[in-house]
Amino acid sequence: MFNIVSAQKPADQALRQDGLCLLHPDELTSALKLPTPDWTQRWNALSESWNRLPSDAHLKDGGHYRKRRHSCFIQELSNGTLTQTAHRAHWQPTDYNALHGGFERLFDAVEPAVAQAPAWRELISHLGQLFAQVQPVERWFIEAHQFRIDTAGGVGRPTPEGAHRDGVNFVVVLLVARLGVKGGETRVFDAHGPQGVRFVMETPLTALLLDDNRVIHETTPIFPADAATSQGFRDTLVLTYRAGGFQAP
Q1: Which string of b and e fits 8-21 if b means at least 16 CB within 10 Å?
Q2: Cα(147)–Cα(166) distance, integer angstroms
Q3: What is the DSSP letter of 168?
Q4: 148 part of a folded domain
Q5: Residues 219-234 pLDDT 10s
Q6: Is 247 part of a structural domain of the chain?
Q7: Which of 118, 122, 130, 162 has the most CB atoms around its CB within 10 Å?
């Protein structure tokens, strides 16, 4: 278990056997059959939208290090449609998020120009098709979270809730940008045993795919890489795919 050298096996096979798959940028576009270099260029044009994320007003640790947007989609596998839902709150049970679970958190929606952009929709849809090869379903209920974790206060915490599962079927963590920070080690552990792996995602468009039923994950805090400045940040897109409906109270 936990052989994350993704080039050794197809992504769907890695998920079936190991419960996780780490894809480097060229492997991501290849595994998802995304049109290149056109898709990468169109995606890179969207990455500047992370500069406009509003602050997360729901952090219970009193921090101000996280900015965020959130929107939801439904993917019908039979006809390939991807539909954005009416804006809704994000909710998790305390069993999965002891810090922020148990109450509805309403965030600003993903900007319409981003949520309807072909590159955004292609990424979400192609990932859903890949996950349907691992676990056949009729539809996916998808939540998309744009995150910026910064070090303006000296430390930023990508996962303040600690090592966790999300209560879904599959999770994607896509690195969008990383600038002027150190730390941020990603850790993935077997949910039912002692095995685990640790690595740092450094190159934009590196993607970690997780079977949420089989593994738990976290990312360690980030700090300014240069003591003279505190303006570093780490941008990610986190996508969750769930069969049977969105999590709700």
Answers
A1: eeebbebbeebbbb
A2: 16
A3: S
A4: yes
A5: 999 999 987 777 899 9
A6: no
A7: 130
- H-helix segments, the chain: 11-18, 25-31, 38-46, 112-115, 118-134
Strand 233-242, strand 139-150: pairing: antiparallel
Q: How confident is the model at residue 5 (pLDDT cuts 50, 70, 90)?
A: very low
pLDDT at 36 over 90: no
What domain count does the chain have? Answer: 1
Q: Give which of 146, 130, 147, 69 is closest to 105, Cα–Cα.
A: 69
Q: Which range of residues forms the domain containing residue 112?
A: 6-242
Q: Which amino acid is at 238?
A: V
**221 located within any domain:** yes
Q: pLDDT tens across 181-195, in order?
A: 999 999 999 988 888
Question: Which band of pLDDT confidence, cut at 50, 70 and 90, is reported for residue 99?
Answer: low
In a domain, 205, yes or no: yes
Whole-angstrom distance, CA of residue 155 vs CA of residue 152: 7
How far is Cα 234 from Cα 66, in angstroms, rounded to an integer? 10
